[in-house]
Design a protein that fits this description.
Blueprint lengths: L3 E5 L3 H13 L3 E5 L2 H10 L4 E5 L7 H10 L6 E5 L4 H9 L4 E4 L4 H28 L9 H15 L14 H8 L1
Parallel strand pairs: 1-2, 1-3, 3-4, 4-5
Length: about 180
């Protein structure tokens, strides 16, 4: 699957090697060495995945990640650092980074990270779409027994009566309760 990637790093060699590795794998790669300009780009352009260095002279990557999230950018972000420590990785994760990679990063690890992140992102989108299509736990039925039960549910739901629902485990008591409510 071809992805549109955005790489933010103040080191020109890192930008060149990462973009080359991604392009050879068939992905599009946009690079930026200025965190301030990067923030403007992610607000206006659409990327599938963002790679950002943590330690940069103008603005550190964690602050940039915070600003991206505050600006409503929901694109998955992978943080990278050659001076990584546990606290930095934990903070990045708390701020919404999907992964934290320690430099130097092998091409295999980079491509695996892209594949896994895109797969997870696609699954989350499918899950959201399916939840919207299914609605809030709507009961789907066609049989006569269920038609009778749903007629009872409609009558009870319209009243102020208390209801006690009995049934075997897994028969949908909770769905009936939500429907009545």
């Amino acid at each position: 699957m071809k992805a549109n990637l955005f790489i933010i790093d103040d080191d020109a060699n890192t930008l060149a090697s990462l973009s080359r590795a991604f392009r050879l794998a068939g992905h599009e790669a946009t690079v930026c060495d200025d965190p301030k300009r990067a923030l403007e780009l992610v607000k206006s352009a659409s990327f599938d995945l963002i790679f950002s260095d943590v330690v940069m002279p103008m603005k550190d990557g964690l602050t940039l990640l915070e600003e991206m999230r505050a600006a409503g950018v929901t694109t998955p972000v992978v943080m990278m650092s050659g001076q990584a420590h546990i606290e930095m990785a934990v903070k990045a994760t708390r701020l919404g980074a999907v992964d934290f990679l320690e430099k130097p990063i092998s091409t295999e690890k980079l491509l695996l990270t892209v594949e896994n992140t895109l797969r997870l992102s696609r699954l989350e989108q499918e899950n959201t779409a399916l939840r919207k299509r299914l609605g809030g736990g709507e009961i789907v039925y066609t049989g006569e027994a269920m038609k009778k039960l749903m007629a009872q549910v409609e009558r009870v739901a319209a009243s102020a009566s208390r209801v006690c629902i009995f049934g075997e485990t897994g028969t949908g008591k909770e769905l009936i309760a939500r429907t009545i409510y």
